[in-house]
Amino acid sequence: MIIDKLENISLYSQIPDSVCEFLKTLSEDTLCGRYNLSETDYVNIETYSTKLISEGKFETHDNYIDIQLLLSGQERIYIDTREGLKEENPYNLEKDITFYVNDISGSDFVTLNGSNFVMIYPHEAHAPQISYNNLPQCVKKAVFKIKV
């Protein structure tokens, strides 16, 4: 997992140039939807209300690395290793996702606030969209999907 300031994202050689170039065009006014960056990589821009910690679920992806950053608002992403988590349902190949039943509340977290990003690899579990200080708010987020 990589957690860093947005201004440093181009320092990571494993992040495709297409991601860094698209980041330069992002703002709070960027329309929601899916934007293809290459034949395999894309970004989803979405808005939603953050969830209470009691509603959070760990998830993992087998085929994509996530790079997540906020365009407005704040949220927490809880993080853990995939090892030892109990699956809620079998892996969904079409959506490249597995959800887990484990409680997230004792895990470490990252607070996304618009000035930073988190890069999450397939061996890492994350529970996104969690309210900052348990106060739900509307956020706008970019989730880059980088094919492994």
Would you kindly provide a written description of the structure presented here, covering whatever features stand out?
The model has no long low-confidence stretch (mean pLDDT 96). The chain is mainly beta and 148 residues long. A hairpin with a 5-residue loop joins β2 (33-36) and β3 (42-49). It contains 1 helix and 11 strands. The chain has one domain (2-147): Sandwich (Jelly Rolls).
Defining traits:
148 residues, mainly beta, Jelly Rolls, 6-stranded antiparallel sheet, 3-stranded antiparallel sheet, globular
In brief:
By secondary structure, the chain is mainly beta.
Write the layout of secondary structure elements.
Blueprint: E1 2-5, H1 17-23, E2 33-36, E3 42-49, E4 59-60, E5 64-72, E6 75-81, E7 98-99, E8 108-112, E9 116-120, E10 124-131, E11 138-147
Antiparallel strand pairs: 1-9, 2-3, 3-11, 4-7, 5-9, 5-11, 6-8, 6-10
